[in-house]
Amino acid sequence: MGCTAADVVAALRVAAAVVQEHRDELVRLDQAIGDADHGENMRRGFTAVLSRLDAEEPATPGKVLKLVATTLISTVGGAAGPLYGTAFLRAAAAVGEAEELDCEAVSKALRAALDGVVARGKAVVGDKTMVDALTPAVAAAASVDSSVAAVLSAAADAAFEGAESTVPMVARKGRASYLGERSAGHLDPGARSTALLLRAFADAAAKA
Amino acid sequence: MKKIINDPETVVQDALRGMQAAHPDLLTVHLDPAVVVRADAPVRGKVAIISGGGSGHEPLHGGFVGRGMLDAACPGAVFTSPTSDQVLDAVVRTDGGAGALLIVKNYTGDVLNFEMAGELAESEVRSVVIDDDVAVKDSLYTAGRRGVGGTVLLEKIVGAAAERGDDLAACEALAQRVIGSVRSMGLALTSCTVPHVGEPSFALADDEMEIGIGIHGEPGRQRVPVGSASEMVSALLEPVLEDLPFASGDRVLLFTNSMGGTPLIELYLAHGIAEQLLADRGITVERRLVGPYITSLEMQGMSLTLLRLDDEMIELWDAPVHTAALRWGV
Lengths: 208, 330
What we know:
The structure holds 2 protein chains of 2 kinds. By secondary structure, chain A is an all-alpha fold. Chain A is 69% helix and 0% strand. In chain A, helix 1 (5-21) packs antiparallel against helix 3, helix 7 (131-142) packs antiparallel against helix 8 and helix 8 packs antiparallel against helix 9. The mean pLDDT of chain A is 95. Chain B has 2 domains: 29-181, Rossmann fold; 182-316, Dihydroxyacetone kinase, domain 2 (Hypothetical Protein Tm841, Chain: A,domain 3, 2-Layer Sandwich). Chain B has helices at residues 11-22, 84-93, 108-120, 150-163, 168-181, 229-243, 264-280, 311-318, and strands spanning 27-31, 34-38, 48-55, 66-67, 72-78, 100-105, 125-130, 182-188, 208-211, 222-225, 251-258, 284-291, 301-308, 321-323, 327-328. Helix content of chain B is 31%, strand content 25%. Chain B contains 8 helices and 15 strands. By secondary structure, chain B is of the alpha/beta class. In chain B, helix 2 (84-93) crosses helix 3 (108-120) and helix 6 crosses helix 7 (264-280). The chains are: A mainly alpha, B alpha/beta. Chains A and B meet through helix 3, helix 4 and helix 5 of A and strand 5 and helix 3 of B.
């Protein structure tokens, strides 16, 4: 069973609620090694996504993803705006005009999102960024083909592990890199938000 | 948190409305997306000089919009880079047919959003990235040095060049020359509180100071006991002098900047010490700027910026400027 435009919209509503719920946590994580804006920027972005989704009904999963991309690019700011915006934009392009997304399409969209983030931000695994969560998520997703929910669940599990792996890392990208060794011992807020979003998508898919 | 605000969510928009009310002759504020544009934009045949960044550093950048400096400024949320559609909107609103030069401070978010705007623009757009903060090591393993105090001097000098009719390539080359000649470092005596966070960005004990602070409350190079003003000025000036390096016989502009909470009496005191230290080394201070021009909300602290001058930079520094925060020759 595939995932329709309505399913993608439902998943984004869950994601927006999760972002709202974890806003303060993301602010605190960012306060430790960055500039304390990640939680608020993500909340602002996903609040804007919700109001766009209330006003419009994109016909295909690809169009929903594109709407999310343009909204995040124009409302989030910081590094997260262009990075998440590019991720959703590339995912939208990867799924094209399909009415429903199967396991392979979802996996392909995740791969495209990762490629977009890497192209835009130039980070690699080990730099203490969202790439450390997204890279293992993409690999895990590619190894599952039983259902879309299973693909996303595997991706979310791997993303959480990947996010945790950023704790001992010394940041080499973004504002945390200014701290050098002092950035070690903290969870990367971007890796954390990536894991939270994938978990939200997986939970929504499981209920669909 | 005690601040003169109504709602942490609308601080930037509310302040922009006040800025419009205060300076209707100089600038026009657009709120969606947020862009501060010089009142007579677009200026036909002139290269548009555009900058922007997170809010909370006032008067940077909106206070520098006007004749002889910026054509537009894009204010992001507090300490958050603007979005690319703000930058794109600024490019369109100031397009006088001669292209636009984007002045970007070297922070990941700023670089990414300005880069996306440049890719989306239909007119000719070039950008320069300023990274004058010597506190941060520039290496493959960091995002590179931060853009700080040198940004103010860069915007003034390149703004004057655009105003006299320099073309885009000339403005870009001049900007690179200024970036290559300017270095800064700052210190914090207290933290600052971002309105939507509601608590101080970091904790500093009463007897501590942070050397090498960024302009977003990012921790700096080292935390040390508070010293005398002379010790503080040396702690900032020495690394700045060594980095370029500046040498005896150099002519410089010395910019002594308050992080927002340090009063002018202390800033002048520090400036006097810095002038003496430079004189002792045979460095001639030809021009100076003293005041709160690139701040970190209410943070107490200061930064020192040195720019090695040449004749053209002096001429452009002295050229008329008419903005909310810098005004001479008009």
